[in-house]
Amino acid sequence: MSNTYIPIQMKVERIEIEDPDKALRTFDLVFVNEEDKKNFEYMPGQFCEWSLLGLGESPFGIASSPTETDFLRFTVSRTGSVTNEIHYLREGDTIGIRGPMGNWYPVEKFKGGNVVIIGGGFAFTTLRSLIVYMLEHREDYGDITVIYGARAPELFIYKDEISEWQKRDDIDIQLTIDNPADGWDGRTGFVPAVTKEIAPSTENTWVVVCGPPIMIKFTLPVLSELKFADDRIYTSLERRMKCGIGKCGRCNIGSKYICIDGPVFSLAELKKIPEAF
Amino acid sequence: MIRIEKERIDEFIRTLMETRAVYAPALDGKNTMFAPVEDPAGIDHNIFNTDKSPKEIFFPHSEVLFEYEGEEIKKVERDVRPIVVWGLRGCDARSLRLLDKVFGSAWQKPGNDMFEDPYWKEKYDDAIIFGTACNEPRSTCFCNWFGSGPHDDAGMDVKVVDTEEAFILDPVSEKGKKFIGSLKGWAEATKKDLATIKAVREKAEGLMGEAFGMEGIAEKMADLFFKPVWDDIGAKCVNCGACAFICSTCHCFDVQDEGKKGKKGKRIRIWDTCMFPLFTKEASGHNPRDMSKDRLRQRFMHKFSYFISNYDEHLCTGCGRCVSVCPVNLDIRDVVRAVMTSEA
Ligand SMILES: Cc1cc2nc3c(=O)[nH]c(=O)nc-3n(C[C@H](O)[C@H](O)[C@H](O)COP(=O)(O)OP(=O)(O)OC[C@H]3O[C@@H](n4cnc5c(N)ncnc54)[C@H](O)[C@@H]3O)c2cc1C
Ligand code: SF4
Ligand code: SF4
Ligand code: FES
Predict the structure, then answer these.
(1) Mutate to test the pocket of ligand 4, among A245, A253, A261, A265 (most ligand atoms within 8 A of CB)
(2) Considering the entire predicted model, what is its pTM?
(3) C-alpha span between A223 and A190 (Å, rounded)
(4) Residues in A touching B217 (Cβ below 8 Å)
(5) Residues contacting ligand 4 via CB (< 6 Å)
(6) A77 lines ligand 1 (CB under 6 A)
(7) What is the ipTM of this complex?
(8) A68-to-A17, A45, A183 alpha-carbon distances in Å
(9) Tens-digit pLDDT profile for residues B194-225
(10) Cα–Cα distance for residue pair A168/A151, rounded to 1 Å
């Protein structure tokens, strides 16, 4: 019998600071054991429990794509006790993870369709995974549009990679910041308003929205106004978690467990759960 | 069916103890609970439904998942003898079966052992449950609300009926049949025993209060989610969590590390409850279940709506423990009645 409570060992290979406040760090982890690497199969949208012995566990979305086979990437915002310790990690340190956990964005269903990806703040992690995955399987998808908002220009994560995407002609990147800033010639305004402005066509199109709760709350009505059907809109939920395998009860909403039935849900599914928003 | 005269019960328990860890009802201070048997003569066969629930045998209040030292993880050694439980009541046998749906089976993704809980399975899968039929149910018992009754044997491997003269052992599961079949030197139950069993069963069933109709409660509760009925019920509850800790079917837990980073320590899981605000409070300070009534509603929704959607069963067996323990007399039966009689 396998034991899902026992973490697998990973080594911190690379750390990158994403923002001027140093509150966001990206970690590339590599497997210590070849066997673990072979067994670890995941899809965009899944997450892992980071397991720091003596400190505890915290769930984080996987920011790398399964097509990037050499490492697992995560971006961690410093918010409390565990994440604070994570920020003290150095390259070469060993940590544990458990996973992959949860379901994933329905990339199979998206095949042959256009995909609009709407993100805000540092919740862009699993969206990066999704974008990299789709770009690797570019011929499977129609138009790919990305609408990504941050409070200020320096708060976008994965800036270098986004600049690379902007140079490509097979993906449309629309960045927006909350208020005008020096040296910014892109869009300004909140994500919901910008989404309304861009008004992507609903024709054979799927939407993935991921960001702070407030952004999701105001973006969903805009999408409905644009006539996207509820079962074509996907989002990813967050709740406190512990076990990640549907036992500890912490992430239960309605008859679902976010750790196993989610974190990815369609708006149609969420509308059936009174506690979802 | 075999027959064990009262004088020989210690002898019987001793044969169980040869190869197994036997648990039976015992008095611990002021409370009754299930404890490992050291001397069969010490078992009080008259203890009714124990004050503390037997889920502890398989899902301890605090359980070490593993030990660590620096970055190294060490498995903990456990008593590997299979477990026998003696004297479990029908409601509790059913509770264990319900918990097995959560911990034991990979119901979420059949065939994927990632979703099987090894700590539960290594204890429960090989266990043999001897369940004692209730001849004198209490006023707090309401197992019959769930289609069960004082002589129900669901979840038991061997059903035991106390006929005053003897214990009659009736193997009900495959495991139980194999086990009883392997025993030697015990008499078969007599015709008279069977007649006595029938009589005590009828008497016991007659002592149960009338069952309250619960058909459609899952949908009814879902429809009432935002209704004031929860304010009325919730006003009384002080969110002490006693009901959940005493409950034989509540299974929520927390995971904590004892022992600082880089040092020797252990990761333990420890009972927790949706009744506590910290259960869902997020790092940002936001709490999706901020109000006392949100948390109370969660406990009952889980038992009477969500669990039914997932498993087609109530996550309550009518053991009555929460009724006895609640400091403000919030009776789960009143909650069910209030819900069933409210307008959606
Ligand atoms: C599916 C999912 C994906 C997520 N993805 C990301 C992401 O990509 N990036 C990101 O930054 N955030 C992400 N989060 C949020 C992230 O999990 C939380 O911000 C993080 O858990 C906060 O932990 P903290 O300990 O720093 O905060 P705190 O508020 O200090 O603690 C929160 C919890 O951490 C645990 N904890 C703390 N100390 C201990 C201890 N000593 N022993 C055991 N447990 C302890 C406990 O559960 C504690 O209650 C995600 C959350 C979910 C559910
Ligand atoms: S909710 Fe109350 S009556 Fe039902 S199983 Fe739990 S303790 Fe027993
Ligand atoms: S025991 Fe009673 S007061 Fe305490 S949490 Fe349960 S219902 Fe509320
Ligand atoms: S995190 Fe334990 S049930 Fe989801």
Answers:
(1) A245
(2) 0.92
(3) 14
(4) none
(5) A 241-244, 246-251, 257, 259
(6) yes
(7) 0.90
(8) 21, 15, 33
(9) 999 999 999 999 999 888 999 999 999 999 99
(10) 25
